[in-house]
Amino acid sequence: MTVKTRIMVVDDDETIVDTLTFNFRRAGFEVISFNRALAAVSGFTEANPDLVMLDWMMPDMKGPDLCAILREQAPELPILMLTGRSAPTDIAHGLSSGADDYLVKPFSMVELMARIEALLRRSGKKKRSGARLSVGALSLDEDARKVVFSGRNIDLSPREFALLKVLMQNAGKVLTTDVLLDKVWGTDFDGDVKTVAVHIRWLRQKLEEDPKEPKLLETVHRSGYRLNQLGEDK
């Protein structure tokens, strides 16, 4: 599957957010947006963006202050500040707060895209090496080694993580025990085949509302296991 670069937009202007989201998605980026600075701070870790674009004037916090907070959490993250303030002192303040670039409104989408590409190129974040998967309310980020289900962070062992990844990559399909053994444990595995059932049970204990009546990780009689979609994509 294609792994998209994720841009986080922080701006309280709904029109600008809608315009940016439309153009970024058309360019092949994934977009997550916040209309308040404090919401961006609390959601930053889960969002796990490759680049942040933020506005200077926010109702609950100034852009430079938000920039400084995000920069402390992610020293290498590309941050672009978007604002109507064009005075040299404002530009200097924005850059000194941690922004990598500064674009004054009104701006052209062509210039904005060029600046984003340049920031991603310099940061080495143009491409991700790992998978980012989403099936309903369940999401998995391989680079961050993170799983979230219905807003909850799920702690998994490396083997549980690998098993869930394979099931998500084949969501809606029935995978046999032999297939799961090959993909997760390797073709040279010579242990007990029941290990798949054991790990499925552990995943259910962490993901299912009622592990004894599983709805997400379904056992298909005499066939194998299937991961179903529960909840809506975010």
Automatic annotation (TrEMBL):
Gene Ontology BP terms: regulation of DNA-templated transcription
Keywords tagged on the record: DNA-binding, Phosphoprotein, Two-component regulatory system
InterPro entries: CheY-like_superfamily (IPR011006), OmpR/PhoB-type_DNA-bd (IPR001867), Sig_transdc_resp-reg_receiver (IPR001789), WalR-like (IPR039420), WH-like_DNA-bd_sf (IPR036388)
UniProt-listed SMART domains: REC, Trans_reg_C
DNA-binding region(s) from the entry: 130-229
Gene Ontology cellular component list: cytosol; protein-DNA complex
Domain Response regulatory: 6-120
Pfam families listed in its UniProt record: Response_reg (PF00072), Trans_reg_C (PF00486)
Entry-linked PROSITE patterns: OMPR_PHOB, RESPONSE_REGULATORY
GO MF annotation list: phosphorelay response regulator activity; transcription cis-regulatory region binding
Modified residues (4-aspartylphosphate): 55
OmpR/PhoB-type domain mapped to chain residues: 130-229
Protein name per Swiss-Prot or TrEMBL: Response regulator transcription factor
Organism per entry: Candidatus Obscuribacter phosphatis
